[in-house]
Write a structure and sequence with these properties.
With about 160 residues, this protein is an all-beta fold. About 0% of the residues lie in helices and about 35% in strands. The strands form two sheets. The protein has a six-stranded antiparallel beta sheet, with no helix packed on it. Strands 4-3-5-6-9 form a five-stranded mixed beta sheet, with no helix packed on it. β5 and β6 form a beta hairpin.
């Protein structure tokens, strides 16, 4: 058996918390460096704002998060005491190939915008079907569809009722 970096020998089994490379990973087109068609400036943020994240397909769950400087998306790892701001484990993150530290949403105070950056995840991140290069920031807009591995999230920007 060829060493694929996941198992030390054929009898080893990955632990329940490991993220494995998903089978049948399709090649997606890369996100263009500069988007060809401008969209309305719904991505401009004036504090306070929240993100509504509609997670999943037919049985969608909506999770609200306050916009802050950095929001890590991934899976909880109690062994290393890592708890992302949005834990996708309850939404099929393990089965969907979400890494523990999969992606990060970054608030740019100067431009009043949000960006996403793939944190070199095992199964990649996509925006509206385009694959992201790891460690590079991409601007987010209201209504964008993210895919972290096979977990789909639709972003909605809303004003916070708490401030």
């Amino acid at each position: 058996m060829a060493d694929n970096g996941l198992l030390k020998n054929p009898t080893d089994q990955p632990s329940k918390l490991d993220t494995s490379l998903l089978p049948e990973v399709q090649e997606h087109p890369r996100m263009p460096p500069e988007e060809a068609s401008p969209r309305p400036q719904t991505s401009r943020l004036a504090a306070p704002w929240r993100l509504l994240m509609q997670i999943g397909g037919p049985t969608q769950t909506t999770v609200g998060l306050e916009v802050k400087e950095r929001i890590v998306l991934g899976r909880t790892d109690p062994v290393s005491s890592f708890y992302p701001e949005l834990d996708l484990t309850p939404y099929g993150g393990q089965e969907g190939g979400v890494s523990r530290r999969h992606a990060m949403i970054i608030q740019d105070e100067d431009n009043k915008a949000l960006y996403i950056e793939d944190l070199n995840s095992t199964n990649g991140t996509r925006i509206n079907g385009f694959s992201l290069e790891p460690r590079r920031r991409y601007r987010l807009r209201d209504g964008d569809e993210l895919e972290l591995g096979r977990v789909r999230i639709v972003l909605r920007f809303v004003r916070s009722p708490y401030k």
